[in-house]
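Predict the 3D structure for this chain.
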Amino acid sequence: MGLTLLAILATALLLPGILAMRAYYRAGRVAEADPVFPPLSGVEGLAQAGMCCIAVHAAYAIILAGVAGLPPLIPLPLADPYAVFALHSNADLTRDHVIGLLLGLIWLSFLADLTGRGAAWLGKRYGDPGVFHGPLADILTLNVGPNDFINAYVLTKTDVEGGILGYQGTVVSLIRDADRFPVKVVMRNVAIFYLELAGDRPRRREVGESIDWIALSSEEWRNIAFRVLLVEEDMDDPSPST
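Done. Predicted structure below.
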């Protein structure tokens, strides 16, 4: 088999590991933030993708070994993507090899997605949520109900009349860097305030104006803080529900 074809096949067989890794992190999403996907250009990303790839291919090889002894329900070649590696030359490549390779890659992709989702479910149930969300795991995972929301308090680098301009609003989207620290935040229903530093303690002065939406990046703020709030329903409300 030519080196070019061998390199293409090896790259294709690495895809399930990347798909499993992507499914794993996407399953850890919350309303306000996506888990930070380790870049594949780094050591950690390559190591995780490699481990996922080995796990998916090992599981698929076990499945193939069990299916190979069963009578086929559909007269198609066995979905074995590994058979092409046993060929001595490109001239030995047949239609059955190509069909088996394509079918195998399709089934490997499905298996990779299931493997990633299953690993994420186990991780969320029994593991550490910090794997997905890092230092902000406690804040992001507390926001689990339809009546829960996260408020952000942003102190900007803008000084006005001896005070610091700040914004308070409901977090819609939180984007983080590779270390899983916030770099951008999008908020709605934003209140504007000034934090005055005169005296023994800071004092907040409301501006009395609000903004529907605002997006801020880490270059624009001095600090950012978060708080999970719960809106409790009035259980004594006599109005009928619809």
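Confidence is low (pLDDT under 50) at residues 238-242.
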